[in-house]
Amino acid sequence: MKKVLTGNVAAAYGATAARVNVVAAYPITPQTTIVEILSEIVADGELKADFVKVESEHSALAACIGAQSAGARTFTATSAQGLALMHELIHWSARARLPIVLTNVNRAMAPGWSIWADATDSIAQRDTGWMQVYCENNQEVFDTVIMSYKIGENENILLPTLINLDAFFLSHTSQVVDIYDSERIDSFLPPYNPKYKLDVNAPRSFGALTSPEHYYEFSYLLHNAHKKAKEVIREVGKEFGKKFGREYGLVEEYKCEDADEILVTYGTIAGTTKDAVDRLREKGRKVGAFKIRYFRPFPDEEVIEVLSKAKKIGVIDRAVSFGHEGPFLSEVKAALYESGNYVPVYGFVAGLGGRDVSIADIENIHDHMINNEPENLIWIGVKK
Amino acid sequence: MNSEKKVKLTIPEHEVMSPGHLACQGCGASLAMRYALKALGEKTIVSIPACCWAVIDGPFPYSAAGIPVMHCAFETAASTSSGITHAMSQLGQDDVTTLAWAGDGGTFDIGLQALSGAAERGDNLIYIVYDNEAYMNTGIQRSSSTPHGAWTTTTPVKHYKKGPKKNIVEIMVAHHIPYVATANIAYPEDLIRKIKKAKEIKGAKFLHLYAPCPTGWKHPPAITIKVARLATETNVFPLYEVTDGVYKINKVIKNVKPVEEYLKLQGRFRHLSKEEIDFIQQEVNKNWERLVKLEKAFGEDSE
Ligand SMILES: Cc1ncc(C[n+]2csc(CCOP(=O)(O)OP(=O)(O)O)c2C)c(N)n1
Ligand SMILES: [Mg+2]
Fold this sequence. Notes:
The complex is a heterodimer. Chain A is an alpha/beta fold. Helix content of chain A is 41%, strand content 18%. Chain A is built from 13 helices and 16 strands. Chain A has helices spanning 7-17, 32-43, 57-69, 80-85, 87-95, 120-123, 138-153, 182-186, 212-244, 269-282, 300-307, 327-339, 359-371, and strands spanning 2-5, 22-24, 50-52, 74-78, 101-106, 131-134, 161-166, 175-178, 205-206, 251-254, 261-265, 287-292, 294-296, 312-317, 345-349, 378-379. In chain A, strand 11, helix 10 (269-282) and strand 12 form a beta-alpha-beta unit. Chain B has one domain: Thiamin diphosphate (ThDP)-binding fold, Pyr/PP domains (Rossmann fold, 3-Layer(aba) Sandwich), CATH 3.40.50. Helices cover 37% and strands 14% of the residues of chain B. An 8-stranded mixed beta sheet of chain B has the order 2-1-3-4-6-5-7-8, sandwiched between helices. In chain B, strand 7 and strand 8 (246-249) form a beta hairpin. In chain B, helix 1 packs across helix 7 and helix 3 (77-90) packs parallel to helix 5 (112-121). The termini of chain B are far apart. The chains are: A alpha/beta, B alpha/beta. Chains A and B meet through helix 3, helix 5 and strand 9 of A and strand 1, strand 2, helix 3 and helix 5 of B. Strand 9 of chain A pairs parallel with strand 2 (69-71) of chain B, so a sheet runs across the interface. Bound molecules: thiamine diphosphate and magnesium ion (MG).
């Protein structure tokens, strides 16, 4: 059924279609409407679930951890300051191997107070063990919520997923979204049935004191789950495509086949980049766009396969790792180094704190790549 | 000795918790859990944050509690249990009791916000704080439950703790939850009755459980019960309960002992001057009088 929905509504409908059992969330701009809509859906009885109206994001994730450990499918959503407040439990939930799904509306960190798009909040959660996806449009938000449960709950994976959507550009922008009710989703997503849970008939302790004898292996296993997840993400993305007509992978290529230069990016800038590629192609430039969906697990295979064929790569980050460079840039360069194919890579930082990144900006980025030597950190439109 | 004479147990004989846990000798907190589980039985899921009990239960892959144990972050005993109780309700297991079991640091300090949230929401759980009046797991640092006059490693003898401990019971009563009570490991019948009562009530229930720590209080492990009993016999730790806002003092001590008797057994108070002991006595008297007034005003016989 096609509907016109904002990204936040798409996220809430995704959780509803996935028949989550427990939702625990706390309001923060620009995520708030996710909380509002879900609390109404639950109160109306359209979704048979408990909505825990917690007093903080920290408690939101703690409640999800408790509920998921007890065998419930859980959902939460937040943004920026809220995600940062959850940080301790972001680690906890991944190490506890709980396939929680969290939609994070990418928003800049204060100070100064900013409610606008910036990926620094989620990038700061990089090493926690969560899978991380960046969405380009509202359809992808809805679809990704559904797929993330299926991927995360796979018994070889058992990992939580952070689904990111850009503040306002998606959270508050209406787009046409093809949605399905839970009956349709049921045939794709079976009920959550974990092998180990808090069970009074089989009492176990979870998360106890762990000596150096075992902790190392827990980390090793968590990493291996990420490695295995890549294949599961590809499979589930294909299965979703067969069932619902839209296929997903760890990355998405756009006119990369014969491209001399490839522009790599994520989130909504990926959509703008595709439009810029079309315009540049009209001018006779052989350029392509490469969208990275999954930041973790990082798709090095796809990156190497597609990007090492190009003559120049430009990576556009809506975040900066202070004292270094754009975070996606680092990953792309590392993957190319691994391949032994040292394609020149340009690093661009754009759109911090919600500053608009236009098609013209992307065209300028391409001009810059044609006319200059590569550099790791090129600030787009900075007022000096 | 008359071998014919049989001791009649006044508390359930059945043990849920096993021996072989990692508590220090004379640990009040381990006894507290043992009694609590006698009251609650096997159909209980407990959340345990960072505290001595995170160690007492045993390292991976061991567990002494005999029920499912959810180790959780320091400030999340209440919020984790909220999640568990909502999951139980959604998964059709309403007969399972959800227990949050935390130290005074995890309750009076870092976990107070989450506890307040769970209480205000009325989440169906029992929250028990075992109070040993300091951060014992990390080596005896003061908490907001540390009483006036006490030595801890962050309130050393020269700069011992000044100021009263936080009144957590009144804080919880102010949340208008259906049941708030104090209990003491030296009074197991009263303790078990209260936990059983809490189990039968729907909503958020809170118990403040007095549990001496010989290691942190500097008293011999053999006298843990004696110290605990003296806390109640001196009115330092009165036994009372507040059911739907109605106060009831459960034990009125006829011959109240001087506070000094309680203090002098513990190395943590050894440095106290006569004046300080007198001051503590006055504070204890005041608190007791206040409690009596509360019972008069809001007890069963009040208007
Ligand atoms: C966020 C966080 N801060 C600090 C700690 C370190 N820590 C672990 S247990 C503890 C003290 C616990 O005291 P209490 O709750 O009174 O329990 P007890 O150890 O006395 O049983 C502290 C400070 C932690 N685990 N997590
Ligand atoms: Mg303590």
